[in-house]
């Protein structure tokens, strides 16, 4: 059993939806990423997508494009991402998946990449530009190092292909809510609901998680009626960007606001802070 499996089992037993949150490594600056991840953990995140900054993030809208560009301007690379994951893992058992694009992994070497990711405490990989039909080399390397590989489906994915994705994926199947980029507005409710209901019927080997366009607790609850949980990225990136670009906030205030954002996203407004469940990492700004 992986950390992801254990997490989904525990949530299912409690009748809860999983909340995954995406943050680009090195954003808003390399020193802030780690403390933000711990703030998200305190806010109740169930798994984290740690973005690997890339110059051509083809599935991303402007917020995550900006986050990648900002991280790359600090010289952040794959080795830095491994170090961030490793430091987070020392203080938390929350699953971490690396999300990015396949070219940097090919340049690094697939087996070397999977080995180093696993050694850093990473649990899985999400690569939007890797077709399942061409994924054997990565899947083999990932399996060798006990990493899950998540594949994506979209509203225009044929039913037969959804079933192929479900057979190839481990960890979960990522249901993109819109035929667009991250941060896009959600389509009309009946259209999204029909797509997710159809996907729920077809995906029977993995949890089904929905993402793209979710900005609020209400969005998350509406879409996850037909799934096992939801993922939010651009809304968090926008929130972090606004906090760190506003010099009137202290770092402690910023991290409190990030924690509250995560808690509200999952549970709604006026949710009391839970009892601390982790040791605050040394060097938190």
Termini, distance in Å?
A: 35 Å
Spans with pLDDT under 50 lasting ≥5 residues?
A: 180-184, 275-285
- Beta-sheet strand percentage? 5-15%
Q: Sheet with the most strands? A: 8 strands, parallel, barrel
Spatial order of the strands forming the largest sheet? 1-2-3-4-5-6-7-8
Mean of all residue-level pLDDT scores = 90
- Helicity, in percent? 40-55%
What is the CATH domain class?
Alpha Beta
Number of beta strands: 8
Question: What do you see in this structure?
Answer:
With 285 residues, this protein is α/β, with parallel strands linked by helices. Helix content is 47%, strand content 13%. Helix 7 links the parallel strand 4 and strand 5. The longest helix has 17 residues. It is globular, with a radius of gyration of 18 Å. The chain starts with a helix and ends in an 18-residue tail after the last helix.
Question: What's the layout of helices and strands?
Answer:
Elements: H1 3-14, E1 18-24, H2 30-42, E2 47-51, H3 62-73, H4 78-89, E3 96-99, H5 102-108, H6 110-119, E4 124-126, H7 136-144, E5 148-153, H8 159-168, E6 173-176, H9 189-202, E7 208-211, H10 217-223, E8 229-232, H11 234-245, H12 251-267
Parallel strand pairs: 1-2, 1-8, 2-3, 3-4, 4-5, 5-6, 6-7, 7-8
Q: Could you give a quick summary of the protein structure above?
A:
The protein has 285 residues and is an alpha/beta fold. It has helices at 3-14, 30-42, 62-73, 78-89, 102-108, 110-119, 136-144, 159-168, 189-202, 217-223, 234-245, 251-267; strands at residues 18-24, 47-51, 96-99, 124-126, 148-153, 173-176, 208-211, 229-232.
